[in-house]
Specification:
The protein has 122 residues and is an alpha/beta fold. Helices cover 17% and strands 43% of the residues.
């Protein structure tokens, strides 16, 4: 069994696509519109994807305050500079719970926590 995707309901597909492409760096793999009010986009590289779903009839979402999507970065310091240049606030952190890992959280356009993680080589 393989983990294939995580589904995120979004309020504005274009705003979310901009975030996941421009900030996270994911590429669109496929788009579909299975019904007139529903748009679906799969993004990612490698085996696991993120599925964004926009339903014109759905206006509120409950992601849960303790759920986040994690992405590794080469340098957390460079990532902080990138976020600052784009006026994207850091939601929590940075944290360094051990000498080999540092991370922080930002929020996506709908408030889902996104974690950037640097694995430190010792």
């Amino acid at each position: 069994m393989n983990f294939c995707w995580a589904t995120i309901q979004v309020s504005d597909m274009e705003k979310s696509l901009s975030f996941y492409q421009d900030v996270i760096g994911l590429k669109i793999n496929r788009r579909m519109q299975p019904m007139p009010d529903i748009n679906i986009v799969f993004l990612g590289s490698g085996g696991t994807e993120i599925e964004l779903i926009h339903n014109n009839k759905k206006t509120s979402f409950n992601y849960g305050k303790d759920i986040s999507l994690g992405f590794t970065v080469e340098s957390l310091d460079k990532t902080i500079g990138f976020l600052n240049n784009r006026n994207i606030p850091i939601h929590e952190g940075p944290f360094q719970p051990s000498p080999i890992i540092k991370f922080l959280y930002i929020l996506d356009p709908d408030g889902l926590k996104i974690q950037f993680v640097e694995n430190i080589k010792v």
